[in-house]
Specification:
Blueprint lengths: L23 H5 L4 E4 L6 H8 L8 E4 L11 H9 L5 E5 L4 H5 L4 E6 L3 H10 L5 E6 L2 H23 L4 H21 L4 H4 L2 H12 L4 H10 L9 H12 L8 H11 L4 H12 L2
Parallel strand pairs: 1-2, 2-3, 4-5
Antiparallel strand pairs: 3-4
Helix pairs in contact: 2-3, 6-7, 6-9, 6-10, 6-11
């Protein structure tokens, strides 16, 4: 599936949970491509283990969207492990695995500075229902994919509080503006934030009935912050711990943090936010 699965303790080197263990390094050493689908926090250790065994022309592809405990994106963690951005790529966009398995189309941007690497990945997925486009803006698509999970929580909150379709339209427009400013501030392109890894995946995650982060937002509006776990929640925590940017300059992003801190006041905080917009 093209969506990272949660880690299963003790099963790191199993083909599937409960299957006989295998020598990961030995298997990877014979491959043309290696897919990193685990949470970002495991990328550096896994990449460091594999690096000495991989073929020189082996391409590593990551689809993990969170931050690790050092506040790094998957691309940053892999770059630290491999020492070069030329041997790996990242792939993000609206590509819900259940829909792909059902033969429905999915769309993604492949981030790599090498056109040849993109062509290899395009051939890898030839004949599937996944449509790809190339971008050299690895930083931009990485941060777009990371941040949209934080913002998707707000859409769930608004839905649970029955704030209506107009509110959803406002959130979409304003989140895109904030997302663009944050991504460019972190070194990415404004255009990237408006493409598949940014706006495309944001709309999918914020509106899909099966979206994990939309459901987390609904639970947040019901006062269930103590049970909330997800990439968006962890991302917000890492951004604050490591001071990756000043969230107070981005009102909606800052609002998510305040809602998570005081979930019992979610309805009141949302109303205060709307009242403040009147000036």
């Amino acid at each position: 599936p093209l969506r990272p699965r949660p880690a299963h303790p003790g099963c790191e080197d199993h083909a599937t949970p409960g299957a006989p263990p295998f020598d990961l390094e030995s298997v990877a050493s014979r491959q043309d491509a290696v897919l990193f689908g685990r949470p970002s926090g495991r990328h550096l250790d896994r990449a460091a283990r594999l690096r000495p065994r991989l073929r020189r022309d082996c391409l590593c592809l990551s689809i993990a969207k969170g931050l690790d405990d050092r506040g790094r994106t998957s691309a940053q963690a892999l770059n630290d492990a491999f020492g070069s951005g030329d041997v790996f790529a990242v792939m993000y966009g609206p590509m819900i695995s259940e829909e792909l398995r059902a033969g429905r189309p999915g769309f993604a941007q492949v981030g790599t500075p090498r056109a040849g690497a993109y062509e290899s990945i395009r051939r890898l997925f030839a004949g599937t229902s996944l449509y790809l486009e190339h971008t050299a803006d690895v930083t931009g698509i990485s941060w777009s994919a990371v941040l949209k999970n934080v913002y998707a929580l707000l859409f769930g909150v608004a839905d649970e509080l029955q704030l209506g379709d107009n509110m959803r339209g406002y959130l979409a427009a304003t989140v895109l503006d904030e997302l663009t400013r944050i991504v460019t501030g972190l070194g990415g392109s404004a255009e990237t934030a408006r493409r598949l890894a940014g706006l495309g995946d944001l709309i999918t995650t914020a509106t899909s009935a099966g979206s994990h982060h939309r459901e987390l937002g609904r639970r947040l509006a019901r006062g269930g912050a103590g049970t909330l776990e997800g990439e968006g929640v962890h991302t917000l925590k890492m951004i604050r711990i490591h001071g990756l940017f000043d969230s107070t300059r981005h009102p909606l992003f800052d609002l998510v943090g305040r809602l998570l801190a005081e979930p019992a006041t979610t309805r009141a905080q949302m109303q205060d936010f709307l009242d403040h917009m009147r000036g």
